[in-house]
Amino acid sequence: MNNTALRAEAQSANNTHMVFANEEHEKFYYEKLEQAEDNLTDGQVDCYHKALIYILGISEDTRNHFSQIYDMKSGYIKLECLHQGWQTSGSVRVVRLAFNLYTDGTPSVDDYEGRDEQLNECREYSVSDIFCCGYAVYFWQGIMLRYPEYCRKQKSIEEILAAVR
Length: 165
What we know:
Layout: H1 3-12, H2 23-39, H3 47-56, H4 60-64, H5 66-69, E1 70-71, E2 76-77, H6 89-103, H7 115-123, H8 127-131, H9 136-146, H10 148-151, H11 157-164
Helix pairs in contact: 2-3, 3-6, 3-9, 6-9
């Protein structure tokens, strides 16, 4: 699939246009989608990868350190990135949401041995801790990419009842 096809698919999803933080974010998203497509055995980029790539493209810091966050060839996230010196309060939020959408969990919790440390790390994945920043509007777009089946236009109660009758 070429860049134009990827762009058309993304813009037609849910009958809305994708929202990007800036041109660099958009360019990053489509470039990394193409790279992911080349690395996946079936050549199909799934909703997990789309959400991960989109979210990691929001911040300049995460774009610049993408290879320290995610290994495109193996498909593994790199938890140690959460403790690197380049991280900011915003980029850590971006990474945690990307990891959560990609793994359906809180993967960095296992980096800690003590129960209190694990609980504190788990809290860092809470909605209030992640969404309380200027990236929140873009986080919604990432969630829509990860859960497209739940973000389509829902039928009205009248349409549902009419179909049952």
